[in-house]
Fold this sequence. Notes:
There is one protein chain. It is globular and about 40 Å long. The chain has one domain (8-201): Aldolase class I (TIM Barrel, Alpha-Beta Barrel), CATH 3.20.20.70. It contains 10 helices and 8 strands. 46% of the residues are buried. The chain is 40% helix and 17% strand. It is of the alpha/beta class.
Amino acid sequence: MRAPLPRLHAITDERIARRPDLDALAxxxxxxxxxxxxxxxxxxxxxxxEHYDLAVHLSIVPSALFVNxxxxxxxxxxxxxxxxxxxxxxxxxxxxxxxAWWIGKSVHALAEAEAAQAEGADYLLVxxxxxxxxxPGRAPIGLDTLGRIARLDLPVIAIGGIDTExxxxxxxxxxxxxxxxxxxxxSADPEGPARWMLEDLQ
Length: 202
């Protein structure tokens, strides 16, 4: 029986993946997030080896490891789950590789969420809920659309402009959990935001 889906997801990008203090940051985040924290090894511009090395570093800490898109890396490191984007392999293909994975799908609209549910996704990564510097050209979907997607009865992880002040808002809209890049990795004290966001999500 697999462990519950974590509620807080700390997602990396290329900048974070190449930070010399990545290991130390991950350790501090893990203290704040405990068993309800997942690390996502993600970086679209990373080479296969860089993506693997990133996942190795994140797998050292006692938190759940998810790998975005690179199913070969997820298999190699016994990841808890995988996150599939728009251009990734189908959910069914990922399921054949490891039936124990949590398989998530990134969606940006209700129609995409319905399609991912029909495809057999275990959870949805939904956003950007708010405007975010990570995707400056993408319009935020807002809390109303987040709420409609949450009513599909799949766990929803909200992402996009979410910080310690907005975790309560997405929870009230129906989100199961939240994901963040800057609010966690770029904090002066990452343990605090991780702990506070999880308190709001309970």
